[in-house]
Design brief:
Layout lengths: L1 H5 L9 H15 L27 E6 L8 H18 L12 E4 L2 H10 L11 H15 L14 H10 L10 E8 L4 E6 H6 L7 H8 L5 E4 L6 E5 L1 H5 L3 H10 L13 E6 L17 H24 L6 E4 L16 H13 L1 E5 L5 E7 H19 L30
Parallel strand pairs: 1-2, 1-7, 2-3, 7-8
Antiparallel strand pairs: 3-4, 3-6, 5-6, 9-10
Helix pairs in contact: 2-11, 3-5, 3-12, 3-13, 4-5, 4-8, 6-8
């Protein structure tokens, strides 16, 4: 897997985090090697786990960067998923955050993660899926802006004002579940992952949600400091660092034994990965040379597909516990045009959801399957409901999320490189 990644080195330094993630996927999942160095001897309950279903499955939601739809495909997917959860649970107030333990989002996906998993005034999620979709539609032009030919240029724009108005002074410590949001830190020349677990462990890793959103969606350089002002990063969008954060989310769960004590492999996971259409045609006309911004999108789409392929291979016989929602190439390139109006883009998103889905096959590339993306979302909602019901009668905890104010354990699994002043 190192060979395909090396193709990106002409534009950016080798992505150390991606190498680490893929190494773990290969060693722990694909070839059966088990790294036991992160297991905590203090956890003596493991012998009580008589079967893989006794302690249940950790539920992971991953949301790609903006892609061809500026995040609207993922947002619409979440609207349908939340609707199915409400119907099957007979609870009209059910929210996405109630049925997932971990969320990872990049770019527009990171904004969605913040909207759906940040606590509101009533202690529940700040936004429903429908409200989050409306937020993206209303603010699409402010959040998703194509970078100019000179990509790394410092910028302070209207998106920061939108995020400040929405989230105020809330920080990563105010999120409801495990949250992971990547960006690219120009200072360190590598990815930086905003993490709830790290924020609760180390003051220098707690950031304002408004700054997290600004960093992961940035199309130009944005300076971001931690709440205590001790950590500073110069951020570029998460689409560059990690367009598909699924592997990062899985790695975080497997290495965070403090919060996920019994999760040892893919058999202990339920994963939904939401794509946003592939934008590789944007900025490419005929045989002309692609603009730098288009090359960034091409690279991001390629790495996103690689992550999907690797995760699909990792799940193997547990394949039904991993779902990838993504448009196939049938949809025209116009849906990726940043000039397309919001009213014109949404019908295209609906078309993507109705079309037959694509799946990665072990060592055989991709195939078109009979189930549509909508069918897959409905089927997976049943798995999420089943896991939620199982937990109501379970003795052993599947997830033990650390809360603000709890004693620190130095067990946070930082996946980031960081620069401090």
């Amino acid at each position: 897997m190192a060979a395909p990644l090396s193709m990106l080195e002409s534009n950016y330094e080798a992505d150390k985090l991606t190498y680490e993630i893929f190494s773990i996927l290969e060693n722990k999942f694909l070839f059966g090697q088990d790294d036991t160095q992160h297991k905590q001897p203090a956890l003596q309950l493991e012998h009580l786990k008589s079967g893989k279903h006794v302690t249940g499955k950790v539920r992971v939601l991953s949301i790609d960067g903006g892609g061809a739809t500026d995040g609207l495909l993922a947002a619409k997917s979440l609207v349908h998923l939340e609707s199915h959860l409400q119907q099957k649970s007979n609870n009209p107030n059910a929210r996405i955050a109630n049925y997932f333990d971990v969320v990872a989002g990049s770019g527009a996906g990171g904004v969605l993660a913040a909207l759906l998993f940040t606590a509101g005034k009533d202690g529940g999620p700040m936004f429903s899926a429908k409200e989050a979709l409306k937020f993206l539609v209303d603010n699409r032009r402010k959040i998703s802006k194509s970078a100019p030919e000179g990509i790394f240029r410092r910028f302070y724009g209207s998106s920061e004002k939108v995020f400040a108005k929405t989230f105020g002074e809330l920080s990563l410590k105010d999120t409801l579940k495990a949250v992971l949001v990547p960006c690219y830190d120009v200072n360190s020349g590598g990815p930086f992952v905003f993490s709830r677990a790290d924020a609760l462990e180390i003051d220098g890793y707690d950031f304002m949600i408004k700054d997290v959103c600004a960093a992961t969606s940035a199309s130009r350089l944005v300076d971001v400091k931690s709440v205590d002002r001790k950590t500073k990063i110069t951020a570029f969008g998460g689409d560059v660092a990690m367009n598909n954060p699924t592997a990062a989310a899985i790695t975080h769960v497997l290495n965070n034994k403090q919060e996920f004590p019994f999760c040892n492999g893919v058999e202990d996971l339920l994963v939904v990965s939401l794509g946003n259409g592939e934008a590789f045609t944007a900025g490419v006309a005929g045989n002309s040379t692609p603009l730098p911004a288009a090359l960034v999108k091409i690279a991001g789409d390629g790495v996103a597909d690689m992550v999907d392929q690797a995760v699909s291979m990792a799940f193997g016989e547990c394949g039904s516990d991993y779902v990838r929602i993504q448009a196939n190439s049938i949809v025209g390139a116009n849906h990726g045009n940043s000039k397309v109006g919001k009213k014109d883009l949404l019908p295209g998103v609906d078309e993507m959801l109705r079309m037959k889905s694509i799946e990665s096959v072990l060592f055989k590339g991709k195939k078109l399957v009979e189930d549509s993306n909508l069918d897959k979302l409905e089927l997976f909602s049943g798995k999420l409901i089943k896991e939620e019901e199982r937990r109501k009668t379970s003795i052993l905890p599947t997830v033990v999320l650390k809360q603000a104010g709890s004693p620190r354990t130095s067990s946070a699994t930082t996946l980031s490189t960081v620069s401090s002043n």
